[in-house]
Amino acid sequence: MSDDPPASDAGHGDRDAPAEDGDWPARLRGVTESVVATLGPNDLWNLAALGLHDPEHDGRPSEEPVRARTWGRTRTRRNFEARGGGVVQFVTDPREFVDAAATVREESDPVLDSADAWAEVTAERVDAGERGGTEWADWHLRVVDSAVEREGVRTINRGFGAVVDATVAASRLDVPAYDTEELLGRLRYFESVVERCGGPAEREAFERLSDVSGWRSRLSGGVGGIDDGGIDDGGSGDGEGDDRDGDEDADRDDA
Description:
The structure is a single chain. It contains six helices and ten strands. Helix 2 (94-102) runs parallel beside helix 3 and helix 3 (158-171) packs antiparallel against helix 4. It is of the alpha+beta class. Strands 1, 2, 3, 4, 5, 6, 7 and 8 form an eight-stranded antiparallel sheet that branches. Strands 9-10 form a two-stranded antiparallel ribbon.
């Protein structure tokens, strides 16, 4: 990685198949789910889920930068503003995704051991606004450096997709613009998909999400909420433009 912003390369000295500067290490289609690491004021890397919007998905020319959207005044937005970028990585372990999306996770190294590939990016704010009482900001991401960590056949199942969509629903539980009962119904459905189709990793990831969001307690009138953690600009679709409108204290942004 380059020296700006600073990043620790501990444990990642031998990277396979480095990509040329300016290139994403993987093909992006539609809204690609990723985990972004941004350097905080405590010199630790905050991890959050981030949806990467392919330019053509937005109706823009293919040569234009990838877009990401942050919702609320999250850690990712703060760190983008202060540092001007971060490290985007691609993971297929649903437990890593849930930790990034729904908890406060900080690391001394920006690249997870489970990452298949990563890209150091600059982040330029290009637009901002408000919807449903929540501020949002759009960012153009440009690759400074990137590498592929591992190659091979990586299979997924329906449980993996259900886990990703469940993080979206959980992030919206405290947002007035969304109907809580409808969200709980979605979470019950996603739980059934994970139970039927997921493997051990997907089941563990869903239980982790259930614990930190407390959604099951709401089925009987209890109270629970997502941690002030990591949802940033993810893009799993629910037919509403892939926007995860988390509350202003949550660190998940997705549009």
